[in-house]
Structures are given as C-alpha cells and as structure tokens.
Amino acid sequence: MTEPSILIADIGGTNARFALGGDAPQFFHHAQTLEAVEFENVIDAIDTYLRSHNIQQVSAISLAVAGPIRDGKVSFPNNHWSIDSDALVARYQTEQVSLLNDWEAISYSLSGLNDSSAAGNDLIDIGGAWPRLPDNDYTLGALGPGSGLGMSGLLRRDGKLIPLVTEGGHAGFSPENQLQGEILNYLHQKFDDRISRERLLSGPGLVNIHEALCEIHGQENPGLIAADIAVAGINKTDPICEETFDLFFEVLGQVAGDIALALGADDGIFIGGGICQRYPTQLAESKFRKGFENKGRHSHLMKDIPTWLITHKNPGLLGASVFARSKMPR
Questions:
Q1: Which domains does the chain have, with CATH numbers?
Q2: What is the rounded CA–CA span in Å between residue 244 and residue 253?
Q3: What are the Cα distances from residue 79, in Å, to 13, 38, 67, 74, 305?
Q4: Helix, strand, coil share (%) of the chain residues, nearest 5
Q5: What is the per-residue pLDDT across 188-228, written as a single tens digit (0 to 9) for each?
Q6: Which pLDDT tens digit goes with each residue over 170-181?
Q7: Torsion angle of alpha carbons 192, 194, 198, 201, nearest 10°?
Q8: What is the pLDDT of residue 117?
Q9: Closest Cα to residue 7, out of 314, 327, 324?
C-alpha cells in the first residue's frame, strides 16, 4: 500500500487500537490492537503497525486518547506512554496531527453509527418513542460507565459536527429515594468527600454500591470485585448482588435523563462503556428507563426521547475516523 493513508487510533491504558480511516459506511479498515506494555513509546507502536501493513506514508493522524490533552500533548494516567503532536509531525511529515479526548471521539462516532439491521446494526433500542436516528440537525448525548464515567454530547448544525466534551461524570450524585440517600451517606463516610456520579457508575462504583447495601442490610461484606457482583446479580444467586446490579442501572437511567435535560438532547441519548455492552439484556430489562423518565414535571417529555446502547466494537476508532475526514480538504 503506497498511497497516503489516514492513520487513526484509540489509545487507552492497556491497548492501542490502530486502523486506517475511510469513508462511510465502513469508516475504517485494517484494524489491529497492540498492547502498550510491549512498546517503549507510541512511535514504536505506530511504526510497527505501519510496517505490518506496508504503509509508506500517512496524510493525517487522528488519535483518540484516554488522558488529559494540554498544548498538543498527553500523558496517560494508566500506562507509561506520552504523546507530543509536534514529535508526530516531525516523524511522519504531516501537519495534520490531531489528539482527541476519548469521549470526544465517542461523540463523533454517534454520527457514524447506524440503526439499520440491513447495514449491520451498531445499536440496540432501549426505549423511547422515536425508532430511528435523526437525519438532519440534532442534539445528542452520550455516557458510559467503565473504569470511570465518560460523558459527552454531539450537535449537528448545517451539516457541521460540534462535539461537547464534558467532565459530567464528576458532577455530584443526587439520590432520588430513601435507599439511594442511605447509600450516599455510606459513601460520605467511606470517602470523607463529595460524592460524584462516578463513585456509583463505574466498575469501582459497583463495588461501592455493593458495600453500601451490605452495610444497610446488616450483612457481612464478602469483598467481591465488580465482575463477581455482576455475575451473581445476573444469575440471581445473591440478593445483595442482584439489588446492586438493579440499582446501578436505575441510577444510570437517572443520570442519562439529567444529561438529556442539561444538553437539550431531545434527539437521543447513547449508552457506551464496557459494562453495559457486556450486559445488554440486563440493561434493557432493568429500571433504566424508569430512572430516565422520572423527571417530575418534565416526565411526559422524557418518554419521547430515545435511548440506545452502542454495540459497535470500536466506537473510538469510528469517531477518530469521522473527525479526521471532517478535517480533510474536499
């Protein structure tokens, strides 16, 4: 392959997923996952990917990164890599080098997801009155619990995509019933700090909820990890684990509804993150929509807002490709 290519990547704490950007409907191809620990730095990983696909030149680089971006640089909190845009410009002789926050990339991916089974379904409908994605201008929201709680939005205006990058996962948690209030009190004692949404809606959040429920119900805490809580909850082998899982999805719905109201995202809310992707049936059958729609005087408006679970395997790569193509001269 000798023609210039658009290099895209989705780089997290453990894995770096590389691909070549393309146009709709596929958006990227030649995807390959490399482990960060195997490479001294990102340039070594990029060179390995390019050599393995016989790529001689790149016309643009678009990297979605799980870390704070400052002045074209990022250091990863969960691996030893750092990235400097200027170093990539010099190494690969291209001025088009872009770093995106990982949830900024998720925002861009929303425009490339499709809800048509004929073209390969990237989404599962989990409630709302409108069955399809909007075709014209829209306002969308997205969130996803994983190791933390990511949150973003996407506006389309006159054909232009405008991402909304937020740290909404660190906004304060607001309980909506007595049990949630008791959980909040427990977490205040545990952390001696304000309690963010992420303290409940994440892998560690599952553990926090489980610990709180053990305390509230006067049962010994067995010290389970998130994966064990999820399995026991799904299989209904432990009442506390089952309650933990149910409450997790209900709170997720409450927060998703808050995002819809805060952003004016009447055109849809998208759920991503590894936890929900692993348990789509449980999400669909949970109190997620009840929590989403329970907005007092605005509850009647919430019933119409659609919610989807993202099932696309690489939304970060998809978003990086959509972004890169939006910046290319036409």
A1: 5-100+314-327 (3.30.420.40), 114-311 (3.40.367.20)
A2: 14
A3: 5, 11, 10, 11, 38
A4: 40, 25, 35
A5: 999 988 999 999 999 999 999 999 999 999 999 999 999 99
A6: 999 999 999 999
A7: 80
A8: 43
A9: 324
